[in-house]
Amino acid sequence: HAERISKNFDVIDPQPWLRNKTEMDAVLADLEVTYDETLPLLHDQTRFLQNAVHHAKIAREYGEEGRKDLFHKNTLAAKKAASLAQQEGIDSDFLREGISELDDALSHIKQDRIAAAATLTEGAYLHLNSAFKQSQNSN
Questions:
Q1: What pTM value is reported for the model?
Q2: 43 partner at 20 to 30 Å CA-CA among 51, 98, 114, 132?
Q3: Other beta carbons less than 10 A from residue 1's beta carbon
Q4: 2-138: which CATH number, 1.20.120.660, 1.20.120.140, 3.50.50.60, 3.40.190.10?
């Protein structure tokens, strides 16, 4: 089952995974995230940032549980999505800090220091979430 999840979460643009609600619900049930929580991704110019927060949240949870493959994939996805948000013109100290923490986390994962990486994704999640809330308020 982990394979199906990681396949779905490799996709940075959320739209393809939202086409099949049943399939998506099955995947998300494993991650304890609801379909409705992913829907705003389609309607918001800050969808990349929201996606980054979403992946950082999953990474944070899997980091603690030691599911290294999913932890790594979601940390990477959070980093890609956060970088895309930055390219789309969203910029803030929170976002820069979050990206920096995800970079550091990825380097820890490569060296198999999972606990250290998990701590960094925790911080990244908080920073990205703040960046997301800030960008919503400025719209």
A1: 0.63
A2: 98
A3: 8
A4: 1.20.120.660
